[in-house]
C-alpha cells in the first residue's frame, strides 16, 4: 500500500461523512474547510488532509471511483442555471447527482428553483455576493456589499435563500464585517470565498492553493505550493524522455535484447522451414 493510500485509510478511519444536520449543528462552533478541486488525485489529497467540504465538478463526483478516494468529504456538485435549463431540468439532474453519490447540489438559478428543489428534500446551496453567472447585475467582477444599502440587499438575499429552503450559501467577495454580521443573524450556513472568518467555512480553489492557476489569482486566495513550476519541469522531462526514445529508435539502441522475447532456436528453425514450404 502506498503512503498516500495509508494516509487515506487513517483519515477515513478517524472520521465519518458529515450530514447536513451535522454541518448545521456546527454553525458558530468551528470553521470548516472547503475546496474546489478538479481530479481524483486532488480528492484523495483532500481526504487525507481532512478537508470538510468540497465543490466538485459533476464528472469527478459522479465517477464510480470518487467515493473510494474521498469517502468522508461532504461533496457538493452542480451546474449553473445557464447550463441547466428549467426548474424541472434542475430537479431531474440533481436527483441523478444525489442518487450517484453527491451530498448536496449547487443552484445559481432563481429562488423559485431553489424552493422547488428544497421541497423535494434536496440539500441546496445558493450563491450571493459576486456570483460569476450574475455578475453583470452587480457591476462585474468586483466586491459586493461595500455600502450600507448594498449590504442590506445582500442580507435580504441571504434571508430569501433561507426562506426558500437552502441550507447554505456561498458568499463571495463581500466585506468581512458584513458577512460576519449577516452570519450572526441567520440560521443558514455561510461558506466564505473572500468574505472573512465570520462565516461557517473557508472556501478556496485547489488550483490557487497549488499554484497552477493560469490567469489572475484572486486577492482572497493564498498559494501554498508552486505546482505550475513543477508541471513545467515535468513537461520538460516528458519532452526530453520522448526525444531520447526517438533517438534510440533511430540509432538502433532500442529495442535491446532485454526488451525482447526470444524463441528456442529449434522451434525457430521449424517455423522458418514451415514458412518456406508455404
Overall description:
The chain is 47% helix and 13% strand. The protein has 13 helices and eight strands. Residues 4-11 have low confidence and may be disordered. It has an eight-stranded parallel beta barrel with strand order 1-2-3-4-5-6-7-8. The protein has helices at 3-14, 20-25, 40-49, 58-61, 66-69, 81-84, 87-99, 111-119, 148-164, 176-184, 206-210, 227-251, 265-277, and strands spanning 32-36, 53-55, 74-78, 104-106, 124-129, 168-172, 189-193, 201-205. It is an alpha/beta fold and 278 residues long. Helix 8 (111-119) links the parallel strand 4 and strand 5 (124-129).
Mean pLDDT: 92
Name the poorly predicted regions. 4-11
What is the number of beta strands?
A: 8
Measured by DSSP, the beta-strand proportion falls in: 5-15%
Portion of residues within helices: 40-55%
Write out the strand line-up for the largest beta sheet, numbering strands in chain order: 1-2-3-4-5-6-7-8
Topology pattern, helix = H, strand = E: HHEHEHHEHHEHEHEHEEHHH
N→C terminal distance: 53 Å
Shape: elongated
Tell me the Rg in angstroms: 26 Å
- What is the overall number of helices? 13
Q: What structural class do the secondary elements suggest?
A: alpha/beta
Q: In this structure, how is the largest beta sheet organized?
A: 8 strands, parallel, barrel
Amino acid at each position: 500500500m502506498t503512503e498516500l493510500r495509508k494516509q487515506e485509510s487513517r483519515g477515513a478511519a478517524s472520521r465519518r461523512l458529515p450530514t447536513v444536520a451535522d454541518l448545521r449543528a456546527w454553525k458558530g462552533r468551528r470553521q470548516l474547510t472547503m475546496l474546489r478541486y478538479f481530479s481524483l488525485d486532488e480528492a484523495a489529497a483532500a481526504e487525507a488532509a481532512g478537508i470538510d467540504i468540497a465543490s466538485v465538478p459533476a464528472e469527478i463526483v459522479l465517477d464510480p471511483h470518487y467515493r473510494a478516494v474521498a469517502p468522508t468529504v461532504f461533496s457538493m456538485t452542480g451546474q449553473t442555471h445557464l447550463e441547466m435549463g428549467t426548474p424541472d431540468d434542475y430537479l431531474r439532474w440533481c436527483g441523478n447527482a444525489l442518487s450517484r453519490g453527491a451530498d448536496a447540489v449547487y443552484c445559481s438559478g432563481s429562488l423559485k428553483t431553489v424552493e422547488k428543489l428544497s421541497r423535494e428534500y434536496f440539500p441546496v446551496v445558493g450563491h450571493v455576493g459576486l456570483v460569476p453567472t450574475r455578475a453583470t447585475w452587480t457591476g462585474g467582477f468586483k466586491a459586493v456589499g461595500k455600502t450600507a444599502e448594498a449590504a442590506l440587499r445582500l442580507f435580504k438575499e441571504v434571508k430569501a435563500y433561507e426562506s426558500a429552503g437552502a441550507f447554505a450559501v456561498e458568499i463571495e467577495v463581500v466585506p468581512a464585517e458584513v458577512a460576519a454580521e449577516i452570519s450572526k443573524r441567520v440560521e443558514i450556513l455561510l461558506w466564505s470565498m473572500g468574505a472573512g472568518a465570520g462565516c461557517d467555512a473557508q472556501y478556496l480553489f485547489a488550483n490557487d492553493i497549488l499554484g497552477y492557476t493560469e490567469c489572475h489569482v484572486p486577492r482572497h486566495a493564498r498559494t501554498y505550493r508552486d505546482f505550475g513550476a513543477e508541471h513545467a519541469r515535468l513537461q520538460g522531462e516528458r519532452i526530453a524522455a520522448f526525444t531520447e526514445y526517438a533517438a534510440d529508435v533511430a540509432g538502433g539502441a532500442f529495442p535491446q535484447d532485454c526488451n525482447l522475447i526470444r524463441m528456442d532456436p529449434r522451434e525457430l528453425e521449424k517455423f522458418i522451414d514451415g514458412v518456406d514450404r508455404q
